[in-house]
Amino acid sequence: MFSTYEEALEWIHSRLRLGMKPGLQRMEWMMEKLGHPERRIKSIHIGGTNGKGSTVTFLRSILQEAGYSVGTFTSPYFEKFNERISLNGIPINDEDLVRLANDIYPLAIELEQTELGGPTEFEIITAMAFQYFGHVQPVDLVLFEVGLGGRYDSTNIIYPILSIITSIGLDHTAILGNTYEEIAFEKAGIIKPGVSVITAVKQEEALAVIQDKALSMKSPVYQLGNEFAISDHKSLDLGEFFSLKTVFQNFPDLETGMSGKHQTENASLAVMAAELLNKFYSFLIEVNHIRAGLKKAFWPGRFEILSEDPLVVIDGAHNEEGIAALTAELNNRFEDKSKNIVFAALADKKLDKMIGKLDSAADRITFTEFEFPRAAAAEDLYNLSKNSRRQFHTDWKELLEAELREAGKNSVLVITGSLYFLSEVKPILLNLLKKNK
């Protein structure tokens, strides 16, 4: 058993060696042993390729404004591991994390001896979240973010009151499939009988898969563009302005605290969810809660402007769709500025397509690398680029110092790629910016 936070964390991370093992039997086995904490939780399930974390954040913020206690289960973490299990936006404390690890550890050892095999890192963290919100710290509602896919994801043993599928993109294709239909099939696996589905999926072929599944489950579908629609969008210095019309009412002149046109879609999913909670589940959520919640919501590493002089943006665009949203936003917001991009990524992504999009947006692009099991080498990224002003630098800390020294009034420095990379970069970058003031 563990007596310190470091011991517990080391054990949890040691399970990474087991990789990913699709299937729900190990989760069901552990829940049975724990007395089914997942059945004690009122929850919303959020799947999709991009926008899950932001949608969770908007919805949590709205619910908190309305006075509810809200648990969240998200991944990956940005600054500290504990963020993955949070209460009202505040990560659980180290003592609780140790306690939860001690609850799950004997089960993991016992499970190892069965034909099911030992649980993976993600299964252990998911079990800890169920135990926390089911038995240790009950809350009004928990927002569970899917880890990967949906159908066989560890979180998919819950029976939520709402399901949200944000978007479909060609990410994790080796596991989820190579087409929008195949990926939509996996994501649609979170749809439960009779449970309403809210979605911003755009591709017709992906949408058809989701609608078919919902129809077979007798689950109502609320689709962006049909049952709720965005209008009057414009970007603000910080955040976005838009109006929203739903089947229930109109919301003129909404503002988000998070920047990027795509955030209006994530915000609208959260508003639609709040509307359904209000209409069908007796949650007392007023228009003023929705307005304040959207404006106050903040999720680190999503088109986050760290400094205005010099202008520095970090964005965790870690797949093709994320890069497309980032480059559109750079062109929309900083059309007249020189764009210097720093990029590091995991090797198992569709890097050629991602880099192609960055090439076309960047005035200068520098590839770098970081310490992580699946990180791509800077030189490999460089070799995929066709930008005439491309370079690579293996030491990202040295690179950032040099970039900040060269940053001018007419340029924007954009650091993007893997969220694991950005979580290392942000504290160092903030320190450098402070020193340079």
UniProtKB/TrEMBL annotation:
The organism sits in which domain of life?
A: Bacteria
Kind of enzyme, top EC level?
Answer: ligase
- Catalytic activity, reaction form: (6S)-5,6,7,8-tetrahydrofolyl-(gamma-L-Glu)(n) + L-glutamate + ATP = (6S)-5,6,7,8-tetrahydrofolyl-(gamma-L-Glu)(n+1) + ADP + phosphate + H(+)
What Enzyme Commission number(s) appear in the record?
6.3.2.17
| Matching Pfam families | Mur_ligase_C, Mur_ligase_M
Q: Does the keyword Zinc apply?
A: no
- Name of the featured protein: tetrahydrofolate synthase
Q: What is the lineage of its organism?
A: Bacteria, Bacillati, Bacillota, Bacilli, Bacillales
